[in-house]
Amino acid sequence: MNNHSDVVIIGGGINGASIACHLARDGASVTLLEKRFIAGGPTGHSSAIVRQHYSNPVTARMALKSLQVWQNFRDLVGSEAGFTKTGFMIGVRPEDVAGLKANIAMQQSLGISTTFVTPEEMREIEPQLDPTGLGGGAYEPGGGYCDASAAANGFANAARRLGARIRTGITATGFEVEAGKVVGVRTDQGMVPAGKVIVAAGPWSPALLAQIGVKIPVIAARVKVTLYRRPADFDRHGVWADFISQVYLRPETGNLMLVGSISPKEAGDQVKDPDSYNERVDMATLADFAERAALRYPAMERSQVASSYASLYDITPDWHPIMDGVSGFENVYVCAGGSGHGFKLAPAAGEMMANLALNGKQPDDDINLFSLDRFEKGKPVRGRYEYSIVG
Known about the structure:
Blueprint: E1 5-10, H1 14-25, E2 30-34, E3 49-50, H2 57-71, H3 73-77, E4 84-85, E5 88-92, H4 97-109, E6 115-117, H5 119-125, E7 136-140, E8 144-145, H6 148-161, E9 165-168, E10 172-178, E11 181-187, E12 190-199, H7 205-210, E13 219-229, E14 239-242, E15 247-252, E16 256-261, E17 270-271, H8 283-296, E18 304-315, E19 322-326, E20 329-336, H9 342-359
Parallel strand pairs: 1-2, 1-12, 2-9, 5-14, 12-20
Antiparallel strand pairs: 3-8, 4-8, 5-7, 6-7, 10-11, 11-12, 13-16, 13-17, 13-18, 14-15, 15-16, 19-20
Helix pairs in contact: 1-6, 1-9, 2-9
């Protein structure tokens, strides 16, 4: 416990593990602290969808870079992330087609492989899809999904091979402060000395930082996921996001369809204690999500409920992460508030946070978009198009 580390990371989810891996690659001595096990929090429940459809060039670039990591995870990280390429497609209302096309043009200018598709072309890509009421969509042939737990453990194991200490079953309880500087992390097993500290503890981040007087606008919100058994004659589909019925869905192992909401209004009630919340999903939600899935995939009218669960998002007011240093402590950083985007952007976010901690903030860094003080300055990140206001 007395081993000093250049950087101590609090949180063993996908972002904490990615940051640890990138820091260790850069030659820093790293200790990661996780109170349960790697991916033991919301990461382990993540839908782990991989797509690049964002309306902000910074997040779009991050998604593209992250996709390249997911596609080549074994070569780059040394293990499997369970990436399954299915294609990713979204559908929008007729009045949103102009905005969608402008967004696609921006993404294409960054090198993202995406195209506008008409309702008829959607049906060609997804024969069982019913595009009634849609004005068009965007299709990314390279999209898909990962195994979130395998991905987080892959990053953590790579960090360990590079010399990082990955400590699980240890709870961070506070900080050791000397002369206005954090010199270590207090835990239930003693103090861990640190040159710098990165708090990447998801919904637990606000309570930890509050102990040194730092407030971050992040709340924990309960989100619901349902799984249905597909009928025998419905054997294939890709990842789909519907901006009319406000759901996303993807295949799941065992001939299942996983369904969740993309509506910010449906993020659920705020959770005061991330260690204690209702993980069950009610019958009304099971019926509602099934109906919305069947709206586009009529074969799902013959589906059966297989499972369901509720997890947590750590959400900021603009639904974009905070990736920044904190005021008053030059050696403390935060990476939290992923707001449902955290998994897909994690490879890029890990690299950006490692660079921030080791080299400081530079004027032209993409990470500046996610500054902590943007809310006080009235400069939140906004989606550019009405169909996806948080994109």
